[in-house]
Amino acid sequence: MINKPSIPQGTRDFSAQTIRKRNYILNTIKTVFELYGFQPLETPAMENLETLMGKYGDEGDKLIFKILNNGLNNEKNIEAAKAGFEKVLEGKNSVDVTERALKYDLTIPFARYVAMNHTKLSFPFKRYQIQPVWRADRPQKGRYREFTQCDADVVGSYSLMNDVEFALIYDEVFNRLGLFDYELKINSRKILSALARACNATDKLVVITTAIDKLDKVSVNKVKAELSEKGLTEFQIELIEKYIAISGTNEEKVEQLINLLGKMPETKRGLEEIKKILQHTAGKNVVVDFTLARGLNYYTGIIYEAKAPAIVQMGSIGGGGRYDDLTGLFGVPDIPGVGISFGVDRIYDVLEELKLFPENLQVSTKALFFNMGETESNFAFTVMQKLRKAGVACELFHIEETKIAKQFRYAEDKKIPFAVIIGSKEIEQNYCQVKNLATGEQHVVIFENLINFFNNN
Amino acid sequence: MINKPSIPQGTRDFSAQTIRKRNYILNTIKTVFELYGFQPLETPAMENLETLMGKYGDEGDKLIFKILNNGLNNEKNIEAAKAGFEKVLEGKNSVDVTERALKYDLTIPFARYVAMNHTKLSFPFKRYQIQPVWRADRPQKGRYREFTQCDADVVGSYSLMNDVEFALIYDEVFNRLGLFDYELKINSRKILSALARACNATDKLVVITTAIDKLDKVSVNKVKAELSEKGLTEFQIELIEKYIAISGTNEEKVEQLINLLGKMPETKRGLEEIKKILQHTAGKNVVVDFTLARGLNYYTGIIYEAKAPAIVQMGSIGGGGRYDDLTGLFGVPDIPGVGISFGVDRIYDVLEELKLFPENLQVSTKALFFNMGETESNFAFTVMQKLRKAGVACELFHIEETKIAKQFRYAEDKKIPFAVIIGSKEIEQNYCQVKNLATGEQHVVIFENLINFFNNN
Fold first, then answer.
1. Which residue of A398, B75, B111, B256 lies most exposed, with the fewest beta carbons within 10 A?
2. What burial class does residue A405 get, using C-beta atoms within 10 Å of its C-beta: 0-12 exposed, 13-18 middle, 19+ buried?
3. Residue of chain B whose alpha carbon sits nearest to that of A42
4. Closest chain B residue to A45 measured between Cα atoms?
5. Is the confidence at residue A401, as pLDDT, over 70?
């Protein structure tokens, strides 16, 4: 009895059609990254478990896929493995059972890479990285256990021009993909610090940030309730409510912020960052949003969040920000940086919904040569080899004694635009029939002109 | 105390330079696959453990990387996990400890995919797949625990034209890579069956094949000793020795084979296959080698092995063959096929040794705009944005108050061919200095001509 084969929950096979669409997105992003001087980096799927543990909080740690050591049944390992497994059952880790794990994001492996190679790298180091990551999350619509992340970071530079360029990279990528109505929200973490200081609650920065971060999903009243629950006073909550209420154009928001928090030293520095971005992105869809917080606590300056055009219900399709210390966790301090990522799966769904994938994306094979019998096939084959030499992708239908209807269906399934038919009469008279399968139009083309025909059609 | 970060044994980080070289190889192969009508497929890194187990022999099974289930410390799992781990310590598997594993090759996941989707696929199904696989092998020079495989297969067709096309694909790829002196060895498994029958030892086919397969590494006497040890008679060994001694041109070898084994029915069918390949590959480097055996037992017809040019000591850089039944293991019988793979890591080493990587491969960023101060940088930035719009990759050196020497070094490290220098005098007079960093040549270019300059240089 053979079980029906299946794949693990939360993973996907990608067919040719899906791969072409995904590559369209990934190649667009890659091209723009390279226009801005970023270079590719690839790190292994597996990292040492100790590289990953403790970097993503308790919840994150639980979602890391760990790899069982090989050879546990080996006599010299068996006792240690037994003791190690006791630890695993207590929710701890043991190198005697699992030394390695699948990477959970691209940031920590990148930090590990920079820490390992910092004496050899040329700074500022600008890298992009497009690779799968793995998370043992409960799978649901749009959430997978194996998915592709797409990051770019500059490390080793405090210059705000890097932050400016990331805003321009978002703009360029979304425009190239036809997402003209995207929105790029920006804020500075320094402004949130200013708010905490104005509340006289610098120790509660994380509480305030976490609560405000939920405004996307919950009402202002819910946020106020959370703040009150976490011990903030009425006066503090009132100030935060005023802060949340800031609205209008970018200029109006900046003015209101100055009125509210202008005296805080962080306000001045945060606004300098924001103004620098605005100065270089005039006319782009950059929107100042002081309630933008971004969950991760390592951000210290500019933060970004990219939103899909409002007509699709999708939310964030990218995000990032500036951090002060990438590699401190690995013993190499003082490497600041800024980085962004694109949410590839969501961008895919948005382009699909808005029908923005180019139509010609799916054409790979240009012509199917029909199988009209042994002799005809051998002849067709020599014609086909000339086309391939000239860069025209084509194939011969490789099944003996097949029906014409089946060959048409095959061409249709593979989205092959042309059928080439060469029978004995055609061989004799030095031409072939070329049928455009979309229009039904039929052309008589002499063999010498076939390359030309396909280059022009 | 922070440990020095490291990566798991047998895994690699790929820097930009290495990625560009690898992509050069992979893109060449991809382009040729597509010219022949193959379409991409991607399967997950993780498969269900039961999909993989029992497919690679006992030795292979041991080298599969298994993934520890998450949440083993959960109360409802803990008892089953304990019992399961006892099994693991006996060298068995337990879904209560590990349900999933990293893929070991691309063939079994492909077979699983075809078995899962065979009612929806259009046959003959021609797919290529370029993805990493994982093996818990002892790492050594040229052998990694995470490495890229690069496969193409046609399934659902018995036609020998598929086998012919794979020989031509090897030829086209190696020629495009400059490996003109490659050698493609071919044989048919049917010829080896004929030999076993002539020896009156069809039950010893595997023994004979395995012994002959070692001729690459050991002497004829060693092979004879092995055959004798495995119980073959003197008469049988003598016949095998004559078989091994077949030599000369392809035509001479075929003639000698007919003299030796012409009466066996498998000889006729095997030679038909070989002749079909030779007929369509005249003038290419195809060499008939009746001692070619290929270890894997599922091959039934043509087998291939590609060798690097003899001046490098590398051996096999690709291989494959025809099989009768890809998906029978997954309950879907009667899907025959033929496939090949390229050894990407070895091809990389060969191209490196023969200095065959194109020189311009490493140019990504075309120009580095030097940082000459705040005002100058802001001005340079607007110039740069125009270049980027025109598709010229460039970057501004993003560190405040930096030394000129450092900027030159940065350009050199990143292999950026041009430096652009814009000082206050240049801004005033509407031009910039462009320095070719390889030749030292300096050009004065007015801003309006800069796009043209870079398109022509």
1. B75
2. exposed
3. B14
4. B146
5. no
d(CA B443, CA B434): 5
Considering the entire predicted model, what is its pTM?
0.94
pLDDT tens, position by position, B300-338: 999 999 999 999 988 899 999 999 888 988 999 999 999
**What phi and psi, each to the nearest 5 degrees, are found at residue B195?**
-60, -45
Between residues 131 and 150 of chain B, which touch chain A (CB distance below 8 Å)?
132, 134, 136, 145-146
Residue B109, class by beta-carbon neighbours within 10 Å (0-12 exposed, 13-18 middle, 19+ buried)? buried
The encoded tokens of residue B233 equal 């008679």
Strand partners, B101: B47, B66
Which pLDDT band, with edges at 50, 70 and 90, does A402 fall under? confident
- The pairing of beta strand A442-446 with beta strand A431-436: antiparallel
Peptide bond into A124 cis (omega under 30): yes
Confidence of residue B401 (pLDDT cuts 50, 70, 90): low
Q: Could you tell me where the beta strands, DSSP code E, fall in A156-238?
A: 183-188
Nearest CA-CA partner of B72 in A88, A82, A94: A88
Residue A363, pLDDT above cutoff 90: no
Residue to mutate among A175, A398, A451, with most B CBs inside 10 A, is: A398
Q: Cβ A66–B66 below 8 Å, yes or no?
A: no
Task: Please give the Cα distance from B406 to B153 (Å, whole number).
Answer: 51
pLDDT category of residue A325 using cuts at 50, 70 and 90: confident
Q: Which of A15, A394, A438, A400 is nearest to B120 (CA)?
A: A15
Q: Over 60: is that where the pLDDT of A433 sits?
A: yes
Reported in sequence order, the residue ranges of A231-350 that DSSP labels E, i.e. its strands, are: 286-288, 299-307, 316-323, 337-342
Q: What is the pLDDT of residues B107-122, one digit of tens each?
A: 999 999 999 999 999 9
